[in-house]
Prior knowledge:
Elements: E1 27-30, H1 35-51, E2 52-56, H2 64-74, H3 82-92, H4 98-117, H5 122-138, H6 141-144, E3 154-158, H7 163-174, E4 178-182, H8 188-193, E5 201-202, H9 217-234, E6 241-244, H10 255-259, H11 262-265, E7 271-274, E8 276-280, H12 288-301, E9 306-310, H13 318-322, H14 332-339, H15 349-370, H16 373-395, E10 404-409, H17 415-424, E11 429-435, E12 450-453, H18 475-488, E13 501-506, H19 514-518, E14 529-531, E15 534-539, E16 541-545, H20 552-562, E17 567-570, E18 592-593, E19 596-597, H21 599-604, H22 615-630, H23 642-650, H24 655-662, E20 672-676, H25 685-697, E21 700-705, E22 722-725, H26 749-753
Parallel strand pairs: 1-4, 1-5, 2-3, 3-4, 6-7, 8-11, 8-12, 9-10, 10-11, 13-15, 16-21, 16-22, 17-20, 20-21
Antiparallel strand pairs: 14-15, 18-19
Helix pairs in contact: 3-4, 4-5, 4-7, 15-16, 15-17, 16-17, 22-23, 22-25, 23-25
Amino acid sequence: xxxxxxxxNLNDYFRQLNERETPGVYFYRIxxxxxxxGRFIRQYYETARRNGxxxxxxxxxxxxxxxxxxxxxxxxxxxxxxxxxxxxxxKWLPRMNDHQRENVALSLxxxxxxxxxxxxxxxxxxxxxxxCMCWLYYKFERIVNQLGENQVPKILYEGSISxxxxxxxxxxxxxxxxxxxxxxxxxxxxxxxxxxxxxxxxLKFPGMKDFPQDFSLKQVRDEIRIEADRxxxxxxxxxxxxxxxxxxxxxxxxxxDIRKSPxxxxxDPGFFFNCFCRISGAxxxxxxxxxxxQFGLDLKxxxxxxxxxxxxxxxxxxxxxxAVRRNNYAKLEQLIQDLSSxxxxxxxxxxxxxxxxxxxxxxxxxxxxxxxxxxLTSQAVYLICWLxxxxxxxxxxxxxxxxxxxxxxxxxxxANEALFLRFxxxxxxxxxxxxxxxxxxxxxxxxxxxxxxxxxxxxxxxFPQESTDxxxxxxxxxxERELDSLMYQDSGLYxxxxxxxxxxxxxxxxxxxxxxxWREEAxxxxxxxxxxxxxxxxxxxxKISGVKDxxxxxxxQDIRELITxxxxxxxxxxxxxxxxANPMKAHAVEFYKRGRLLKEKIKAHPDYPxxxxxxxxxxxxxxxxxxxxxxxxxxxxxxxxxEYAIIAQVLNLPKELVRLIQKYDFTQKIPKLIxxxxxxxxISRQDAVITAFLNRAGFDVLFxxxxxxxxxEKHFQGALMEEHQAGEYIYxxxxxxxxxIAWKARTKWRDKLFKRGK
Length: 758
């Protein structure tokens, strides 16, 4: 029989019998985990799969069918004798040679003898013998003829082992088999069977921790399968791999390292030496822009492939997207295999292989984060479009060991941009992300990314590529900007038009609260907040049906008091006729493709009506238009082409409303729409689009309907606004000239508190 010997390191398990310092086998139980142990388990699993037995959970006891066959072949006679056991093994497992049979027989006899010494009856010994014989045949027959061979067979057991399971595995171990017991739950159950640890060794390595909560051999098996699938996806491997950032000095400043030539970075022919770096903040406010200009000039003069992007990577155009060959996918591997065919770089096959490898790596890593294959497909298409867009600038005339450079000023805005930069960083490209404005968050996360931080914040929108782009700010200017940060950052005070993005929250109120909240600035309303450079604006969106107490004089007086300088009043129903002319109607179909609003195409259209507005206002309008469509607020959206009618109407707003949007400061006064409907006249879908859009754009919107009729609701999908039943329904009213109604301004609660009311 074979001795149980101790390992010096985990690789000893994979030595052949004649390579071991002392002839023997290894039998260890593993109760803890580390990265090194994780790698060992995977390797041992693969070895046991080829040349051994893997047990996940308990060995099943022989069933009636197994016992019936044993009885038919061997009979039920039992004798406590090594000769009897050897004779039975020869008949039952004829593939074993004499030496193997002798070792198994002796080991089985010893195990039964221990049972006998513990007081077990002959009947119990017989049952134990038959159980072991059945296990040897039905579970371990594939390795019994390999016991004691130079290529030592392996057993891998996962879980809490029972006494008889330990008995049969010990028998095989003594006969010339390596064993690993994985015990994520610890040693307690094992020690019930072998209190003195005579049958196996416990692994004790530095740095061992508890097994991960989700650890299982199934997980190991899945990981191995995924890696095998990935290997097939790679195709022919490139000759070089990335050595990203590992060559950087301990005091790296980013710019100086990127200036280095490939020869200065490393000379191992198996690697390309690139940099993946993000610099947050500015090292010197007054000289930052000038130094960036000189840095960019040096890169251009060096002849390296160079791309410089400021603020955002422009979304792929419809033409770029249409050029990507794609299908519908049921599996991640299928998606990657098919889309990778779009990665073609005929000028250099080695570079093409690098592209394919990087593509496979980032999509496998991104898969769990994406959440769905449809979303991942969209992200992969973006990646391919951007690569095709920039590869000419990055890789024109590329040859090993060239390193191109991609500079992005501003920081990644979304997951698509982050994925693209992660992809580029796995190619022979220096990727530099500059985030001088510390108030703007970059969403990029990657294990390879090297972060450098400076304490100064600088609002720089464009990378200075010409000398005329360099504006040197004075110390006084920067001091004023710092004062702005102190005053307007989380202080409750806000600079004029400090925020460019807004998220709208519709308030649910009592009828009596409306006039109280109506004139309150956004920042004083409940649930107002600012976060991540965005304002959360609480607005009113309600319908008031009926006339309180039937008092018409008071009714018109109350409406008059709600009209401010920032209020647009509609008294004619419908406001926009269904068949009214709209110059944007003919183009709306061009602006929405494959579930996306083509904002850049809209802006570039010669009939685009909002080109004179500030860029952030245009973005606000188009963002809320897209939101209105995606939320399916208007009935018929995505069913009968209502989305195109929505686009046409929002791109044809009355100039008075456009001016209210233009002057809107998201933290201050909220612009308003009052719609008065006194008759049976039907409100048009165009009116519904305008009011729903203004609500999402941050307007207060009130409908006054003294008749109580249903009107605007029929155009909305679901209950968008709350309805207040104010009082008696009254019909056939004419809207008076509200301008002639005298009104008394309400005193704000803050004015009362500080004695400023009139």
